[in-house]
Amino acid sequence: MDFVRGGVREMMIARPDSAKDLIVYKHPERTIPKYSQLTIDADEAAVFFRDGSLVGVLRTAGVGQRHQLDTGNIPFLSNLVDSFTGGNIFVTDLYFVSMRPNRNTKFGGPFPPMKDPELEITVSPRIFGTFIWRVVEPDKFIVNYVGMGGTPSNDRVESFIQTKFMNSVKKTVPNFVIRQKIEIQALPAYHDELGQSFLQKCDDLSEIGAQFLGLGDFTINFSDDELKRIQGAQDRYADIKAKKRAKDELTGGNFMQYAAGEAMLGAGQGMAKGGEGTGTVGAGAGLGMGFAMANMYGQQMGQPGGQPQQQPPPQASPAPQGGTVTCPGCSAKVPPGKFCAECGTSLAPPQPKPCAACQTMLAPGTKFCPNCGTRAT
């Protein structure tokens, strides 16, 4: 509303209702009569410029205020006085800058291709969400960011800030995947941890007089094509793990199963060479040993749950009639016991021993190793 008092045309200056949602609003008139009434809402500040230079800022401290524009009330207005009008006019570019939090600023888009540390495929997830920010230094926000043009749209004001935030997100997520060693498809489960990382790693906006306040909701998802690729990789990975687990169950912790296979392999190699080196007798002996050990393996696998059959403890040689045994060292007939009463040789039955060259277990009485052909010691 305009009115006249004492011959000076005064006016009421305030942000119009139609511009309440704008982050920055520029008053359309550059000339303001002295004693005009300036209303500043509780959530904004008024910034005065002249000839492209900052002159002063009026803040409200959270309470709406009305100021009479007079150099006696606001000293910095003396720098805006137009001397050609007898000091009754202020010449200024006046901006209203919203100081309230902007709670629904959107961000989002695809990430650069990332390698999944578990599946070893390259995928590109997407993220969409909102964050919260606000202006904290309105003069710096205009000088270093918005500029001295007309009233900018919120989209133009927020575009740079959105880009800054998204850049921090693009740097944070790949580092998070590498540090946590997780599948990229599992990222949505780390919603809270990622949100904290985004705010900790986001770029500083103090240079333009703004500040990130928090994160709204966000989602991480994949395109249909990416989901198909991930599912295919997961199926292949699961198949590989199943085969490895089956192999480990067959060989892990069961030496006799492994030795049986090694013995049969060595016998087969000896037969292929026609008995070279160790002779056909040695090859035949090795083959017989391999079949015997394979038969033992089959008996073990026939037990419930695939557990090896418990072997009875070694028994001493059966005592012949008369209550004596034959010493393997001196051939004397001696009473049963652990050692020979004549020469001290152990009376325990011979045990398998390893080959000196390849460590394959050799059955008692074996003269040559069926795996490498080395003479048994």
Automatic annotation (TrEMBL):
InterPro entries: DZR (IPR025874), SPFH_YdjI (IPR033880). Residues 298-309 have a biased composition (Low complexity). Residues 327-373 form the DZANK-type domain. Residues 298-323 are annotated as: Disordered. Residues 29-202 form the SPFH domain. It comes from the Bacteria. This is Putative virion core protein. It comes from Sandaracinus amylolyticus.
